[in-house]
## 1
Amino acid sequence: MQDLLRLARLGGFERVTAQVARVRGCTRPIQLTGYSATLDAETGEALNVFTSLDEPTGRLLVPCGNRRVSRCPACSRLYAADTFHLIRAGLCGGKGTPESVRAHPRVFATLTAPSYGPVHNQPDKGSAGVCRCGTRHRDDDPMLGSPLWPDAYDYTGAVLWNAHASTLWARFTTYLRREVADVLGLTLRQLRAVLRISFAKVAEYQKRGLIHFHAVIRFDGPEGSDQPPPVEATGDVLVTAIRRARHRVRLVVGSDSIGEYELRWGKEIDVREIGAFGKGSPLDDEAVAAYVAKYATKGAETAVGSAFDRPLACPTCRGSGQNGKAGCTTCDGTGANGDLPRSGMTGHARQMIRTAWDLGALPELAHLKLRKWAHMLGFRGHFSTKSRRYSTTLGALRDARRDWRTAQGRVREGLADHDETMLVLDSSWTFLGTGYTPGEELLAATVREQRALALQLKHEGGASE
């Protein structure tokens, strides 16, 4: 409160609140100092100048842009919205993708990890929802996903599977093309001449700490979404090829220290055709896009908990404990950036992290950088990826938003009538730090609360009394 009063006495308090509102209550905004000027390209005359020195606090706040909801709910919502539009554009058109893609065969597939030991769960068939331990677990029970018999659980195999999940996906897409060609009676060269397989996927952690993938997979013509696939390339062909390709993927890894592991997809697989937009199907375009976007902002907190959301490896020595030939003074040679939290994390998650850390010390597994990714339970891939011709890109969506904001800024600055080609932007910014002052944090909390209320009212379809 003292800092809030200090800000109020600076003068221009509305500028302080406007800055916090502009970053949408970002949890840890970036602080910059500097200037930007819009110049006339011919004369060099400064038509508009903004400098952080004119701000009451002497600096400018910009959003952190973190996609993780555990790090910044405000910025993650924007990332989820962009992902929603990216996925939706590939399902029903828009953002540069033709609406004709609605008629292309499309499926929603979920590929899971194999079992590395029985875990506490909520079975929905044959046992009236009772786990093998004899308990009917609640949805928020921390025991869900943890091993029934921890001493017998294969933690090494689980971590190695996470570390190679992206490689398994890459091999799956290779085998998928081969299986589609086989079902259609074509060679791979003939297939490439008449058909392209496009996809977008996100990774999600299961309660047991293992990655699985949700993917939208679509048939296109050879040049992409602008062309229809051949009539014989139906949704049934795509479903059949996905199931076959899943079985063919194998990856053998290991070393003298841990033995040999054959990694493959799990037995559980869900492959369903996507219904047309607006038909009320449980798996229509809107539902799939919203489902995928939701998981694009998640991290390991689903399995680990929000109590641990940072790299465990020391930033100086990157987990090696060595800085050159001497021991690292930052971590005192341990390689760790602090200890694991004592609360807010299950014993299963703690053991997954410790296993990844121990495996990261093996020279033959150094290429996996498991100590760097121990806090992610060994997973080191991208959480959302897409093929080149699926739809628009996140970069294109951000560019469009930036252009719109620039146009709105020119209107506010009275430059809307100027020829854009005759305007030049000159700017220089310096990084100061991150975060708010205590008073600004109070303002940010108010912004977050107001935005959360507005979102709730939007979902409820009206205003509350």
## 2
Amino acid sequence: MMMNTLMPRRSVLATLSTLPWLGSAWAQGTMAHDMSAMSHAVPGGAVAATVLAPVEAIAAGAPLAVLKKLVNTSPQPGLFRATLRAAPVSLAVLQDGTPTEFWAYNNSLPGPLIEVMEGDTVEIEFINALSQPSTIHWHGLPVPPEQDGNPQDAVPAGGRRVYRFKLPLNCAGTYWYHPHPHGFTAEQVYRGLAGLFIVRTKNDPLKSIPERHLVCSDLKLGADGRIAANDMNDEMNGREGQFALVNAQRQPVLTFDAGGRERWRIWNANSARYLRLSLPGARFTLVGTDGGLLGKPVTGLTELQMTAAERIEVIVEAPAGGGVVGLVTEPVERGKMGEVSPEHPITLLNVDFSAVKPERLAALPKLPGSLRRIQPLGAAKAKKRVVFSEEMSMAGGVHSMKFLVNGQNFDMQRVDFTSRIHEVELWEIVNQSDMDHPFHIHGTQFQVLERELDGQVTPEPLLAWRDMVNTRSGEIVRVKLVQRHKGLRMFHCHILEHENAGMMGQVQVI
């Protein structure tokens, strides 16, 4: 059976399952989350199987690693100067010592943490020692477009460039950096290229609380130690590896501060995996989102859900019973395609509360009732409408997918919208596809106003600064934003395989 037109994805699923080159693997769901093997098409229409390493192949239980910091080589106050080199590096992560080639910044997994203050100037020399073009995108940071690692500004293999930008006041928050060369982003990230960025403020009301950094990522390895290429399921649903890691470790142990309270900055640095975090018995208080602290703490939370690329800050207080408790991510229903295998809770790390004495918990001081002042953005002067959709094709007997913005595949030569600098805009992100898509825009933070699903409008309960928001199938999410720099900005789905497949657009700020 052949189809030569594009169609919504569910219309093609039955046809996919009948194709001889997919065989029974698709029908039985073994291409999805069966972590013992994956399948991919090879020349001639055959199906080759790559055996994946079992989850136990990476040792668990080591102490949680402290993130490596990027050293500032500048003696000048207010100037952070350093070098980031993207290059292959061989590391033995499997217990049997089999080496794996990663791509990493400065040979570090995850990439080194950059810590600066509001108002600092940042100057990073980027050396691209890869065989592909690359960039560094400063995800969420308010930097000029020409310094933001857009795909138009790719650094060629073997090349180098200097990124230089000054951070404004009131931008303290939890950010990260990663490549953004169109067509190569997904691979470069899943091979290891991602690093962390924290902007601090002198007036942080929580600075006295011990701080932890938790970088959640995943890894898909073959039994031979090689990083597995994406299979068709990865390209459709977004890549999720069999190893769920924190600070590049499998199920490390976090020894909780004896004082009974910690501040956690959590990065979801996965290509596609959503997180739904719980820590039985412990108390969560949400204090920050992508763009920094909230106006006031949100207490009494038992779960924390994070879309891909999202960051949060939480205060964690030890449970009264102490002991060792697992930080677990539960499955998130996001509309995956195909006959995927059942998903199960994953323990990301174990938290050892044994050093915390009950009398310390009783003596914990109250958290500040006010963290920062966040003003709602004013009346919108313009409106933008972004529609996410998916289409699939069997034209010529070849299976292909398109992930679209406003019915179009990304074109680097096309400007989709024009915006005016310093003008408040209302953006409607409309999800007309069958699966969730996390929306991201470059160069600014936005405020979520409301969500609409099945005609029911729900106001957003939090006034917060974000650069990531999930959109569910059939949902409309309305946000307000302002761009503070002239130039070209990207907006896209942050499931990296979908971005690579065309779910991205461009806005020219004039």
## 3
Amino acid sequence: MRAKTAEDRALLELIDPVAESLGLAVVRVRLMGGTLRRRLQIMAERVTDHDISVEECARLSRAVSEVFDAADPISGEYLLEVSSPGIDRPLTRLIDFDLFEGFEARLETDRMVEGRKRFKGILAGTEGDNVAVDLDGEEDTALIPFEWIADAKLVLTDELLKRGAALRAARGEPEDDGLPEGAAEDEQTNPTPTKDKA
């Protein structure tokens, strides 16, 4: 789930070592858009505390740009965007389901599971290679194989907003940053326009 397409996976192979050298982990890579102007979105965070600063986004952007200038993996013009996963982040790695245990999430599987593909509930961690979820309206905790999950994302709740506020306070950032209530206010972006060499 960190990479959706074969092209995304090839780019992730180039990006992972760069991020690791900076003490960062790649949460997700997506190359989006048509043939004229594409956008490469990289979501990353520190390995140690699963946070990231604007400066670290900028460092990763510069380092990836250097590697891509040499490897030339994307044809045509594209925009490189490096950001935090955001407050209502995608859950792309098995560890994410442990890190956000107790928070509400939406999951979609790549196959039918007991007559459906979409699930919503409170994350209950992991058991082996399975994601545990306390589903809405059901008594038993469901176990869904991680490899069956096509998409998963945290639901923006008051609890999640409080967690985001606590993270900002720990970074020494102001509590009110002028964004509307409920916005993904901890998302940080450092777009770097990049042009393929002719």
